[in-house]
């Protein structure tokens, strides 16, 4: 079965409040058994005008599991904590 990935490009606008989001999202990630492939770290744009401040890639057992994580009560709590603290662009992708 193909894996599911959540890929996020984040621009943090309120670092102190974003720490609260990270706390709740970490708990949601743990609860849903996701593998953290990338969470922050160095970024260098190779092509185009994409310039994310922070990149996150999470791996799930399936595309459906990734979607279920995003809609879970645990992650909804994290999203509520993030409101006003960041500009988020997020996709769910089926992969290997």
Largest sheet: 4 strands, antiparallel
Report strand order across the widest sheet. Answer: 2-3-1-4
Return the average pLDDT rounded to an integer.
Answer: 95
- State Rg: 13 Å
Tally of DSSP helical segments: 3
Strand fraction band? 25-35%
- Give the end-to-end Cα distance, rounded to a whole number of Å: 8 Å
Description:
The structure is a single chain. The protein has a four-stranded antiparallel β-sheet with strand order 2-3-1-4, covered by helices on one side. The longest helix is centred in the N-terminal third of the chain and has 17 residues, at 15-31. The termini are close together. It has three helices and four strands. With 96 residues, the chain is α+β, with helices and mostly antiparallel strands. The protein is globular and about 35 Å long.
Descriptive key words:
4 strands; single chain; 96 residues; alpha+beta; 4-stranded antiparallel sheet
Strand-helix topology:
Blueprint: E1 3-12, H1 15-31, E2 35-39, E3 54-60, H2 63-70, H3 73-82, E4 86-95
Antiparallel strand pairs: 1-3, 1-4, 2-3
Provide a brief overview of the structure:
The protein has 96 residues and is of the alpha+beta class.
